[in-house]
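step 3/5: co-fold with magnesium ion
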Amino acid sequence: MNSADVCILVPTLNEAATIGQLIKDFRKEGFSNILVIDGNSRDGTGEIAEAEGARVVMQTGKGKGQAMIQAFGLIESPYVIMVDGDGTYLAREARFLLEPVLEGRADHVIGNRLENYSPGAFTKLNLMGNRLINMFFDIAYGVKLKDILSGYRAFTLESVRELELNKTGFEIETEISVECILKKQRVEEVPITYLPRSEKGATKLNPVKDGFRIGSTIYKLAKMHNPMFYFGIIGYISILAGLFTGTFVVSEWIEGTDHIPLTILTTLLIIFGLQMFIFGTLSDFILTLHRQTVQLIIEMNKQKK
Ligand SMILES: Nc1nc2c(ncn2[C@@H]2O[C@H](COP(=O)(O)OP(=O)(O)O)[C@@H](O)[C@H]2O)c(=O)[nH]1
Ligand SMILES: [Mg+2]
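step 4/5: write tokens
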């Protein structure tokens, strides 16, 4: 492999404290093709990156996601590594990420931070949030990935080109992970080191607000992949609420008190819940048929060639 075939893509927003060293480290590892996509930093991040020999492009919109989408469109190199500019990942571990891709075993490799993180790299809230989100992802997509939110990843160019991405903020890693699964890409995870952020630079991620957005992204995108999960959750909650009010209505009725409006509500909750399960079953059925049709078209096209 020629190391110029690998584009190191770094999204940055006010990372002057770390970006220079990061670029130096990657250059030391032999990577000279470095693209920094900058969110109009006001602390000189762009200038530092340029002085260290990176190509710097200003993002046209807002958010890490928008930056990544814009940058993916600019890349022509056959391999891509994305890495945060905050100095939390090690340049010398890039080869672990590249290996499965270069050997043709994987289309996309995720650096798993959750096995080998330094003390202080995650706050308690962050760690819990990450584990919860990965678990939720596992249930929604039926794929056991350990660290879907990692910011250190390797791709083949074809893998990147195949992804249909729309999320502009910190939901971008989630969307990348979901798209790789939907596009049936071969995804591998390798353990990597995760360091604490430098004291000089603050994170731009808000654990509560962004955590909620990430969770809701997993849920909404599941509609197309696992409709039973999508509708089932609503159905489950509705039926549970119905059983709750129902228990109360029945116990009161046994003691001689009627609650007519609550009885109606109970019925509605349970019927609505059951309907959601029927929706889910039907959507699952349609999706299965659709998948079979797509598969058939792919096979027919192959035969034509
Ligand atoms: N271009 C660009 N980069 C961003 C933006 N927001 C965050 N980043 C960069 O994305 C990377 C990850 O962000 P960070 O705040 O470290 O999030 P965390 O690692 O999830 O805590 C860092 O290199 C940030 O500088 C943005 O709006 N635009
Ligand atoms: Mg970070």
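step 5/5: annotate
The chain has two domains: 3-225, 227-304.
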